[in-house]
Amino acid sequence: MAQGGLDSVVLRLMHNDPALAELRLAYNYVGDEGSTGVGKALATNQVLQKLSMASAHIGPRGIEELCKGVAHNRGLQVLTLYGNQVRDEGGTALGRMLLSNRTLTKLDLDDAGIGARGCMELCKGLAKNRMLLELNMQENDLGDEGFTALGNALASNASLQQLALGACRG
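Below the sequence we write its predicted structure tokens.
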């Protein structure tokens, strides 16, 4: 996706365009810079309900900036980030986001390069979040510590209904 096209989309998000309820940026080169712009727009957008940024070449820095916006967002229900390089640093940002966000019901982190430390940090937010219903963590290298953290988080989280952990390495 050309930067000019992404800038136009970000402007629509910032202006709460009521026609834009779902945005699919999957398999485009959004990168950290584009993800930062989307995150800033999401901080004020209350209309967008679904956002897919799967395999959009986003690294931990872009995930962190995106999460800052999602933390303040009051409309987004579904966030798809599979195939990006979330890694452990992004897991920390996702955990902080889950502590603040009150609308997200589905989070897809399949094949996101999340390790044990990132999973443990994400679980700090998951343990206290009361809205998330579905979490996909398939194909990540969670390790024994990550699985233990998930178990502990689930002991305090009564809202999560679906947890996908297929092909995780532990």
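The first strand starts at residue 22 and ends at 24.
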